[in-house]
C-alpha cells in the first residue's frame, strides 16, 4: 500500500470521464488500498481514482465512524431524495470550500473490492460524499455545481 500523488486544480485529467472496471482483481484491490492510504494521509472523506491519475470508475469513502472505509467499483446512483445545503471541499482543491445543494439521501449500486454487487442507502454526509466522488468519475468538479459566489479559500493551519 502506498500514498499516491493527488492531482490538483488545473490538471486536465480531472475533466476526463473514467472507464468502467472490467474485472475486480488484485491490481484493482491494491489501487483501492492505495486510494484509502492517500485519502487518510490528507484527511479526506472521499477520493476517486481520477484524483490519483487513473481513469477507472473507483471510489473510496471514509466517514471516520469506526465502520472503516467503503470501496466502490463502478458505482452508480440509482435514486435520490430531498435536498440539503452543504459546505464542500475537495482534495484536488486544497483549502477551498463552497456551498452546494446535494440530495439528503441516495441509493447507490456498485461492486465491492471482491467483485460482489452491493447496494448502499446513504444519508447526510455519506450521501454528499457519494455524489461528490461519482461526479469526479464523469469529469465534473465541485466548483462546477457550487452555489454562485460561495467559494472560499481557507488558510491552512500551520501549527500541525
Keywords:
160 residues; Peptide Deformylase; 19% helix; three-stranded antiparallel β-sheet; alpha+beta; 2 helices; single chain
- In the CATH scheme, the class would be Alpha Beta
**How many strands?**
8
What sort of overall outline do the alpha carbons produce when their principal axes are compared? globular
Which architecture does the CATH hierarchy give at level 2? Alpha-Beta Complex
In angstroms, what separates the terminal alpha carbons?
25 Å
CATH fold field value = Peptide Deformylase
Number of alpha- plus pi-helical segments: 2
Low confidence ranges: none
The main pleated sheet reads as: 5 strands, antiparallel
Proportion of residues in helical segments: 10-25%
- Kindly state the mean pLDDT as a whole number? 96
Structural class: alpha+beta
Task: Outline the fold blueprint.
Elements: H1 26-41, E1 46-48, E2 58-61, E3 70-81, E4 84-90, E5 93-102, E6 105-111, E7 117-123, H2 124-137, E8 152-153
